[in-house]
Amino acid sequence: MSRVDVNCDLGESFGTYKKGNDSEILDYVTSANIACGFHAGDPSVMRKTVGLALEKEVKIGAHPGLPDLIGFGRRNMQLSSEEAYDLVVYQIGALYGFLKAEGAEMQHVKPHGALYNMAAADPSLADAIARAVYKVNPELVLFGLSGSELINAGENIGLATASEVFSDRTYQPDGTLTSRSQPEALITNDEKAVHQVIRMVKEKKVATLGGEEISIQADTICIHGDGIRALSFAKKIRGAFEQANIEAKSVR
User: Fold this and answer.
1) In terms of CB atoms within 10 Å, which of 64, 68, 72, 106 comes out highest?
2) Which residues pair with 150 in a beta bridge?
3) Which of 7, 6, 9 shows the shortest CA–CA distance to 227?
């Protein structure tokens, strides 16, 4: 039987602004990436999301992003390695406080949005993020795009890593995700997305936007929790796993 983690970005509401279906989606994932207040989330949302995840026995990770609430952390910013290190340590620490208060442990760290994509291609930025995670707790698992510089940096510093793939995104020949600025970046057909996921897990292959087949490592699959069909898609993914003899299991 194949095994794969299913993760989702959660805790992305802010103040009176509500985003996602956190409580419902937690029934179908094995790991939760909780926003730490820079791209989304606030202290109350963080506390409540931690509580929901613990109640449903879902493993918890920090989801640090760029300080860009208006752009939801999806706009590139210029920052030094030192700045990247500091903002990742800061955000891990914020979530760690809420976990400590509940007597719980953190499983992983997964950068968000532009920070994630920039680190996938930039070795120095990837190294800064990996160092930040390692310095806070060398037992944490670093989530990064399959085949990316972030995975390389984590392995080089001695962290456990989880190569991540995406159910609803298209891929480029170099293994990167198609930019959201492009019209075909997102896969909106559920059946196509499910088929892509099953192939990535079972065959370790994915078709690029241009039709080329490339190899890919799928340790954890991201499903986005803020789309209008997110909950129904999460149910379909788990149902498809049962039919394909794939077990959904956290990385730890």
Assistant:
1) 64
2) none
3) 9
pLDDT for the residue numbered 68: 97
The answer to whether residues 160 and 144 touch, using CB atoms and an 8 Å cutoff, is no
Question: Domains in the chain, start-ordered, CATH in brackets?
Answer: 2-248 (3.20.20.370)
| Contact predicate 143/166, CB 8 Å | no
pTM of the model: 0.96
Torsion sign across C-alpha atoms 129, 64, 4, 212: negative
- Rounded-to-integer distance, Cα 140 and Cα 123, Å: 20
134-157: per-residue pLDDT in tens? 999 999 999 999 999 999 999 999
Q: Which residue has the tokens 């926003």?
A: 35
d(Cα 172, Cα 94) in Å, to the nearest integer? 35
Mean of the pLDDT values across residues 155-162? Answer: 98
In whole angstroms, what is the distance from residue 157 CA to residue 105 CA?
Answer: 22
